[in-house]
Amino acid sequence: MRLDQKLLENGKKLPLVEEFYTLQGEGIQTGTPAYFIRLGGCDVGCSWCDTKHSWNPTLFPPVPTDEIVARAASFPAKAVVVTGGEPTTYPLGYFTGKLKEAGVKTFIETSGAYPLSGDWDWICLSPKKNAPPTDNIHRLAHELKVVVYEPSDIEWAEQHALLVTEKCSLLLQPEWSRREQLIPLLIEYIQSNPKWRLSLQMHKWIRIP
Q: What Å distances lie between residue 191 and 41, 79, 145, 170, CA to CA?
């Protein structure tokens, strides 16, 4: 489900689900502080998604983007991670422009299901089978993070690894509910294929947002 774009005033408003200051819990940036901004709305529909409450954007009336930026810029890290839902559903050029003006670094986590907008310091591409990446986002990605729900997802990950640049970090991440059975498999695979790294959802282990 997607919001009527007219409600967003070309990105001057966004459907905000939640925002919080915490440590990055997964991927290459694990352990670093950042202000997280979760936008509502996603039609990718992964069965194992841990933020299904964010899927319906009509539950989250658009709020002024300037207000979000002001809150984000007030925290010490001066880094924002935009996630969802699927954030590329919305025009993000105005948002990232204001963050840059405030001296805040911009990070995005996306499936790549829609064309990318905005100016990003770091792009984490996490492709999903339900809605494969579009446009040229593979060449722009700094990080390819593939969630492994079943062993065959490793082959899916390898297909996407062929599309990114040599500078892109490659990560395999076990789906949380199946971590006990998948972690040994991923450890063995990464040992044999060292271009990959293991990503774990640290924030769930230490119980932070």
A: 37, 32, 17, 13
